[in-house]
Amino acid sequence: MTVDLALKKLLAVFILCFFAALPAGALEARYTVKIGESYQHWQVNVCFKDTVPEALFNGHWGNNDTLIGAKTQHGKNLKRSRHRLLLGGVKAGECIDYKVKLPNSKRHIKSLYRSGDDMIVDNSLWLWQPKGLSSDDKVTISFLLADNLSVSTPWLDTDERHTFRLTSTPYHWDSRIAIGRFIIHQLPIGNQILKVAILNSSAKRQDEYLQWIAQAALAIHGVFGAYPVHRAQIVITPIGSRSEAVPWGEVQRGGSIAAHFFVDSFRPIDEFKADWTAAHELSHMFVPYIARNELYLSEGIASYYQNVARAKQGMLTPEQAWDKLLAGFKRGIRSSRRELLAHDPASMQMYWGGAALYLMADVELRKRSGGKQTLASVLKRLSQCCRPSNKSWSGAQLMTKLDKLSQTKVFSELYYQQARARRFPDLKPVLQALGFDSFSRIPYRPLSKDALAIMR
User: Fold this and answer.
1) How many Å apart are CA 140 and CA 26, to the nearest integer?
2) Which of 3-17, 36-50, 237-251 has the lowest mean pLDDT?
3) pTM for this structure?
4) What is the rounded distance in angstroms from the CA atom of residue 426 to the CA atom of residue 404?
5) Contact present, 181 and 150 (Cβ < 8 Å)
6) How far apart are the C-alpha atoms of 207 and 198, rounded to whole Å?
7) H or E element in which residue 20 lies
C-alpha cells in the first residue's frame, strides 16, 4: 500500500468518524389533538419533519390501558412495548395516528376529574411523546377545540391559538391539562405572570379565587423580592363538599412548573385566605425538582415559608407564625420513628424535620453575616442561577450549590450532621437562642429581636 493511499484511507476514516460524532438533527414534530364532545375519545395525529425518534414514550410506568390503537399513515399498526410506542418503519415527513379512550367514571381525582363541563386530566393518560428533548427540538401540540372552549397546559405558549411547545423536562415528570369553558386569567406578580385556570366557577367566585392566589403569590414574592418562574400554570378545581377549603394542592414540574389546587367551592373566601396550602405550594417553586428519596428538602422549604411568608405579608402576626412553626416542630417530633428524614417520606417528621433544617440554616446565615445574608437571599440566587432546571437534584447537589452561593459551609454541615442522624434535628439550641422555652412560646413574653427579624 502506498503512503498516499494509506493517507487517503486514514482521511476517509477521520471524516466518517467526525460526522458520526456530530449531533443528530433537531427533532421537529407537530401533534394535532381532536377531542370528542364528551372529552372521552381523543384522536392524536403526529407528523415528523426531518427526524423520526425510535419511539414515543408515556409517563405512566405501568400498563396504560387508555391507548386503543396506533397506526402509520399507511395503515400499518405500530407496536407497543409497555410505555414505549415503537416507530420502526416511520420515515421523515410521515405521520402517525393514535387513539385514546379515557375512562367513563371518575378515577382518582388527581388523575382524571370532571367538574361541571370542565375536566382536568393527567397527561400520562393520553400523551405519547419523544424522550430526551433538547432546547433545539421543536415539538408542538395543537388542540382543535370549539370556539367556546379553553385549554390550560404547563407548556410554552406560541402565537397560534391552542398551540403549545413541549419543553425539555423529562417525559415522565407529572403534568396535567385542563379543558373546558373557563377563562385563563393572566395574573401579574412582580415581573412574572401566573396563568390561572378556574374550573366550573361563577364570575364572582373566580374573582375571589384570584384574590386568594394573588395574596399567597405576593407573600412569596415579598419574601424573596422576586417570583422565581415565568408564566406558571395554576389550576383550581372544585371537587365538592370537603372538610376544609383546600383539601390538598400540589406542584408538578412536567413541561414547566405548575400548581394545582383542589377546593371545596362551598366554603367562604375567608377560609381560603386563612389556609396555608397556597403559600406552601407556591414556595416549592423556589427550588428545583429534588429526588423523591430526599423529599424533606423540598417539603421543608414549603413548610417553613408557608408561615414566614404569610407573616411578612401581614396575613399572620409574627407571634401567630411562630406558634404555627413550633406546633409543626412538635408534630414532627411526635411522629419521629428514629428514621433518617429521607427514609420517612409519609410523616410529619419529613415535613417539619425539613423545615427545622432550613430554620437552622436561616439563623446561622444571619448570625455569620450580621443579618446581611438570609436563607431567602440565598434561595433567590439559586433561582436566578439555576432555574428553570430540567434535571432531578440530589440533596448533596442542592446543599453544595447553596454553600457556593452563600460562600459558607452552612448547608452541607447541616445536611451531614442533622439530616443523616436518626432523630429529629436538634432544634433546642437554636430556639433557646431565639428566646423560646424549647418548643413553646411563653405567652405575653415579647418575641426577641432575632425572632421578629425572621418574620418581618
Assistant:
1) 13
2) 3-17
3) 0.91
4) 25
5) yes
6) 10
7) helix 3-21
